[in-house]
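Researcher: Here's the sequence for the chain we discussed earlier.
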Amino acid sequence: RRGTLLGILDRTATAMGARMLANWMRYPLIDPAEICLRHDAVEETKANLQLRRAIRENLKSVSDLERIGSKIAMGHANARDLTALKESLVMLPDLWSNMSHLKSEMFRVPGNLDQLNEIADLIDRSIREDAPPAINEGGIIKAGYNAELDELVQISRDAKGWLARLEVREKEATGIGALKVRFNKVFGYYIEIPKSRSADVPGNFVRKQTLVNAERYITDELKSFEMKVFGAEDRRAALEYELFSDIREKVAAKNRCIQDVALFLARIDCLTNLAEVADQNNYCRPAMITDGSIAIEDGRHPVVEKMISAERFVPNTIRMDNQENQVLMITGPNMAGKSTVLRQIALMVVMAQMGAFIPAARAAISITDRIFTRVGALDNLSHGQSTFMVEMQEAANILNAATENSLVVMDEIGRGTSTFD
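Model: Thanks. This is the structure I predict for it:
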């Protein structure tokens, strides 16, 4: 993105805002009223530095609700996605409070966001903050949310205490001080006794495994306990998955509301971002007009002025209209800045119509329906087209498709053939 307009303009705080900003740039507006709404919002937040910084700080705490909402709707969300959703929703009241000081219509909070409190409360009561990414292994649901689950968790948790008590009891009953009650994933629960004390092993101990220095045994009591614990673990994981799926479905039922707030937050992010960039780079608000003229005083190329560090960008003033200055031809030596002027006018039109301020002292820009460019040299030899042929086809396309409200930028037409031609 280095060296692109998007790279200069994108200082968004959220992934949602970054996507929306790229979309605004891809599809500039042609309705003057809509453009002015965006300009009004950018102007208001540009003038309120402290409020703008506070709103942008709030937005940094918001996760990508658009993507999370999609994952929830598709049934792919895990516990961490729901936790991220909750943490984002909990932060919203602070953001609403900061935005209440702004008057622009673009900052008006949607009216259907009350349901978000219910979602945040449900997730807060049910989902653990330290839940693992996997949703079928347990460890997701908070204690106190479901009585049956709490009982199963208690059985699993008491296993260590029960084994310790069993070990003490068996040591006393057999008189074998080196007796140990242990567990491993291969053999499950077992009692381990050194071979030197094999003669003292009671009759109800059934040999399970023989080691070099010890024998491992199982008893009916230990077998019963093992089945109970293993059964509890399996039931716990299954119940947690069932409960989590139910919670996810309840949240999915409010997905329209989640997507609405995601869209609103992305818009807020875009507008405050454009205000921040305008403030930092000394951009001005362009007047949007419809008389077919473009007047830019001391305009600068938004990208080039950032790329040259050792020298000052020389601003350019441009005036065009549909009567006397319909066509401007710029001539001069190499490296004089001809191409820069051409490109900066087109970029400023895009910036103005997407709702951004532009790098100029003053500007009045007519609404443009299309921007045509004939820039750079290339050929298409596989289709039998020379550089000159490609240039002529592009020029013909411009002549056929341009309207009276189009802006045409042509950089060196006809360079793909001899100077005489």
